[in-house]
Amino acid sequence: MEILRCEQVKKIYGSGANQVIALDGINLSVQKGEFVAIVGASGSGKSTLLHILGSVDKPTEGSVMIEGVDISHMNPTQAAIFRRRKVGLIYQFYNLIPTLSVRQNIQMPLLLDKRRPNASYFDQVVNTLGIADKLEALPGQLSGGQQQRAAIARSLIYRPAILLADEPTGNLDRRNGAEILDMLKLSNRNLNQTILLITHDEKIALEADRIITIEDGRIIGDERQVGV
Description:
Elements: E1 2-13, E2 20-31, E3 35-39, H1 46-53, E4 61-66, E5 69-70, H2 76-86, E6 87-90, H3 102-112, H4 119-128, H5 144-156, E7 162-166, H6 174-190, E8 195-199, H7 202-205, E9 210-215, E10 218-224
Parallel strand pairs: 3-8, 3-9, 6-7, 7-8
Antiparallel strand pairs: 1-2, 1-4, 4-5, 9-10
Protein backbone atom coordinates (compact mmCIF):
# COMPACT_ATOMS: atom_id res chain seq x y z
CA MET A 1 0.00 0.00 0.00
CA GLU A 2 1.38 3.39 -1.00
CA ILE A 3 1.77 5.65 2.03
CA LEU A 4 3.71 8.56 0.52
CA ARG A 5 3.73 10.14 -2.93
CA CYS A 6 5.58 13.22 -4.15
CA GLU A 7 4.77 14.60 -7.58
CA GLN A 8 7.02 17.19 -9.24
CA VAL A 9 7.98 18.75 -5.92
CA LYS A 10 10.02 21.93 -6.27
CA LYS A 11 11.37 24.24 -3.59
CA ILE A 12 12.76 27.59 -4.66
CA TYR A 13 14.25 30.19 -2.33
CA GLY A 14 14.76 33.82 -3.30
CA SER A 15 14.22 35.30 -6.74
CA GLY A 16 16.09 36.66 -9.72
CA ALA A 17 19.86 36.47 -9.41
CA ASN A 18 19.50 35.28 -5.82
CA GLN A 19 17.23 32.35 -6.68
CA VAL A 20 18.23 28.98 -5.27
CA ILE A 21 16.50 25.79 -6.44
CA ALA A 22 16.70 23.44 -3.44
CA LEU A 23 14.42 20.76 -4.93
CA ASP A 24 13.92 20.40 -8.67
CA GLY A 25 11.02 18.12 -9.60
CA ILE A 26 11.08 15.33 -7.02
CA ASN A 27 8.90 12.30 -7.83
CA LEU A 28 8.80 9.66 -5.11
CA SER A 29 6.58 6.81 -3.95
CA VAL A 30 7.01 4.92 -0.67
CA GLN A 31 5.06 1.84 0.38
CA LYS A 32 3.86 1.11 3.92
CA GLY A 33 6.52 -0.67 5.97
CA GLU A 34 9.49 0.39 3.83
CA PHE A 35 12.77 1.49 5.41
CA VAL A 36 14.21 4.08 3.02
CA ALA A 37 17.52 5.92 3.32
CA ILE A 38 17.90 9.26 1.55
CA VAL A 39 21.53 10.13 0.93
CA GLY A 40 23.34 13.09 -0.52
CA ALA A 41 26.08 15.59 0.17
CA SER A 42 25.51 18.70 2.24
CA GLY A 43 23.34 21.08 0.23
CA SER A 44 21.90 18.34 -1.98
CA GLY A 45 18.34 19.05 -0.82
CA LYS A 46 17.73 16.01 1.39
CA SER A 47 16.93 17.98 4.55
CA THR A 48 14.69 20.35 2.58
CA LEU A 49 12.80 17.31 1.31
CA LEU A 50 12.42 15.96 4.84
CA HIS A 51 11.00 19.27 6.08
CA ILE A 52 8.45 19.28 3.27
CA LEU A 53 7.50 15.64 3.90
CA GLY A 54 7.06 16.50 7.58
CA SER A 55 4.81 19.48 6.74
CA VAL A 56 7.32 21.79 8.45
CA ASP A 57 7.78 23.57 5.11
CA LYS A 58 5.76 23.84 1.89
CA PRO A 59 6.83 23.11 -1.68
CA THR A 60 6.91 25.97 -4.14
CA GLU A 61 5.36 23.65 -6.72
CA GLY A 62 4.04 20.09 -6.79
CA SER A 63 2.16 17.96 -4.29
CA VAL A 64 2.90 15.69 -1.33
CA MET A 65 0.38 13.03 -0.36
CA ILE A 66 0.55 11.07 2.90
CA GLU A 67 -2.09 8.35 3.30
CA GLY A 68 -3.98 10.03 0.45
CA VAL A 69 -4.03 13.45 2.11
CA ASP A 70 -2.44 16.38 0.25
CA ILE A 71 -0.32 18.21 2.84
CA SER A 72 1.13 20.70 0.34
CA HIS A 73 -1.39 23.48 0.88
CA MET A 74 -2.30 23.12 4.55
CA ASN A 75 -2.28 26.25 6.69
CA PRO A 76 0.09 26.26 9.72
CA THR A 77 -2.59 25.01 12.15
CA GLN A 78 -3.69 22.19 9.87
CA ALA A 79 -0.05 21.23 9.25
CA ALA A 80 0.75 21.16 12.97
CA ILE A 81 -2.23 18.91 13.73
CA PHE A 82 -1.42 16.59 10.83
CA ARG A 83 2.23 16.39 11.88
CA ARG A 84 1.28 15.61 15.46
CA ARG A 85 -1.00 12.77 14.38
CA LYS A 86 0.63 11.32 11.27
CA VAL A 87 4.33 12.22 11.09
CA GLY A 88 7.07 11.23 13.51
CA LEU A 89 10.17 13.45 13.47
CA ILE A 90 13.57 12.51 14.91
CA TYR A 91 16.51 14.89 14.83
CA GLN A 92 20.16 14.76 15.93
CA PHE A 93 19.22 16.75 19.01
CA TYR A 94 16.62 15.00 21.07
CA ASN A 95 14.35 18.00 21.92
CA LEU A 96 13.18 16.39 25.16
CA ILE A 97 11.63 18.66 27.80
CA PRO A 98 14.21 18.63 30.64
CA THR A 99 11.71 19.14 33.49
CA LEU A 100 9.47 16.23 32.47
CA SER A 101 10.11 12.54 33.08
CA VAL A 102 10.92 10.22 30.21
CA ARG A 103 7.39 8.80 30.49
CA GLN A 104 5.83 12.27 30.25
CA ASN A 105 8.07 13.21 27.30
CA ILE A 106 7.05 10.07 25.41
CA GLN A 107 3.35 10.61 26.08
CA MET A 108 3.40 14.37 25.34
CA PRO A 109 2.14 14.19 21.70
CA LEU A 110 -0.89 12.18 22.82
CA LEU A 111 -1.59 14.48 25.77
CA LEU A 112 -1.46 17.53 23.47
CA ASP A 113 -4.05 15.80 21.31
CA LYS A 114 -6.13 14.90 24.40
CA ARG A 115 -5.69 11.18 23.73
CA ARG A 116 -4.90 8.42 26.19
CA PRO A 117 -1.89 6.20 25.56
CA ASN A 118 -2.64 2.58 24.71
CA ALA A 119 -0.96 0.80 27.63
CA SER A 120 0.00 -2.36 25.77
CA TYR A 121 1.41 -0.43 22.79
CA PHE A 122 3.29 1.92 25.13
CA ASP A 123 4.87 -1.09 26.83
CA GLN A 124 5.74 -2.63 23.47
CA VAL A 125 7.48 0.56 22.30
CA VAL A 126 9.54 1.19 25.45
CA ASN A 127 10.51 -2.47 25.71
CA THR A 128 11.50 -2.61 22.04
CA LEU A 129 13.67 0.47 22.59
CA GLY A 130 15.13 -0.80 25.87
CA ILE A 131 14.11 2.13 28.09
CA ALA A 132 11.36 0.57 30.21
CA ASP A 133 13.54 1.02 33.30
CA LYS A 134 14.17 4.73 32.60
CA LEU A 135 10.60 6.02 32.48
CA GLU A 136 10.67 7.97 35.74
CA ALA A 137 14.09 9.53 35.11
CA LEU A 138 14.61 13.04 33.80
CA PRO A 139 16.28 13.42 30.40
CA GLY A 140 19.41 14.88 31.99
CA GLN A 141 19.91 11.63 33.90
CA LEU A 142 20.15 9.62 30.65
CA SER A 143 23.04 9.05 28.28
CA GLY A 144 22.87 10.50 24.77
CA GLY A 145 21.87 7.15 23.34
CA GLN A 146 19.10 6.72 25.92
CA GLN A 147 17.79 10.22 25.23
CA GLN A 148 17.64 9.43 21.52
CA ARG A 149 15.73 6.23 22.30
CA ALA A 150 13.25 8.29 24.31
CA ALA A 151 12.90 10.68 21.37
CA ILE A 152 12.22 7.74 19.05
CA ALA A 153 9.63 6.37 21.48
CA ARG A 154 7.92 9.77 21.55
CA SER A 155 7.77 9.78 17.75
CA LEU A 156 6.32 6.25 17.64
CA ILE A 157 3.76 6.47 20.44
CA TYR A 158 0.97 7.92 18.29
CA ARG A 159 1.58 5.36 15.52
CA PRO A 160 2.52 7.84 12.80
CA ALA A 161 1.96 7.01 9.16
CA ILE A 162 5.61 7.78 8.51
CA LEU A 163 8.73 8.31 10.63
CA LEU A 164 11.27 10.87 9.37
CA ALA A 165 14.75 10.70 10.90
CA ASP A 166 17.24 13.48 10.10
CA GLU A 167 20.79 12.26 10.86
CA PRO A 168 19.54 10.64 14.11
CA THR A 169 22.98 9.19 14.93
CA GLY A 170 24.95 12.32 14.06
CA ASN A 171 25.28 13.47 17.67
CA LEU A 172 26.27 10.06 19.05
CA ASP A 173 29.45 8.02 19.26
CA ARG A 174 29.80 4.96 17.05
CA ARG A 175 28.47 2.43 19.57
CA ASN A 176 25.39 4.46 20.50
CA GLY A 177 24.83 5.33 16.85
CA ALA A 178 24.82 1.63 15.92
CA GLU A 179 22.35 0.90 18.73
CA ILE A 180 19.97 3.64 17.57
CA LEU A 181 20.12 2.30 14.03
CA ASP A 182 19.28 -1.15 15.40
CA MET A 183 16.32 0.37 17.27
CA LEU A 184 15.01 1.92 14.08
CA LYS A 185 15.34 -1.40 12.27
CA LEU A 186 13.44 -3.11 15.09
CA SER A 187 10.69 -0.49 14.88
CA ASN A 188 10.48 -1.08 11.15
CA ARG A 189 10.38 -4.85 11.51
CA ASN A 190 8.39 -5.36 14.73
CA LEU A 191 5.99 -2.40 14.48
CA ASN A 192 5.81 -2.28 10.65
CA GLN A 193 6.83 1.37 10.90
CA THR A 194 7.52 3.18 7.62
CA ILE A 195 10.84 5.04 7.99
CA LEU A 196 12.65 7.61 5.88
CA LEU A 197 16.19 8.13 7.17
CA ILE A 198 18.23 11.13 6.03
CA THR A 199 21.98 10.54 6.19
CA HIS A 200 25.26 11.46 4.54
CA ASP A 201 26.83 8.21 5.80
CA GLU A 202 26.72 5.49 3.16
CA LYS A 203 27.43 2.76 5.75
CA ILE A 204 24.26 3.74 7.63
CA ALA A 205 22.30 3.94 4.38
CA LEU A 206 23.27 0.36 3.55
CA GLU A 207 21.22 -0.83 6.55
CA ALA A 208 18.01 0.34 4.83
CA ASP A 209 16.15 -1.78 2.29
CA ARG A 210 16.07 1.06 -0.26
CA ILE A 211 18.52 3.87 -0.94
CA ILE A 212 17.52 7.11 -2.69
CA THR A 213 20.34 9.43 -3.74
CA ILE A 214 19.76 13.17 -4.15
CA GLU A 215 22.09 15.58 -5.92
CA ASP A 216 21.39 19.23 -6.69
CA GLY A 217 17.76 18.82 -5.69
CA ARG A 218 17.10 15.86 -7.97
CA ILE A 219 16.82 12.13 -7.40
CA ILE A 220 19.70 10.54 -9.30
CA GLY A 221 19.48 7.03 -7.83
CA ASP A 222 16.84 4.69 -6.37
CA GLU A 223 18.15 1.25 -5.46
CA ARG A 224 16.60 -1.61 -3.51
CA GLN A 225 18.89 -3.61 -1.27
CA VAL A 226 18.90 -7.39 -1.46
CA GLY A 227 19.08 -9.43 1.72
CA VAL A 228 18.97 -6.53 4.20
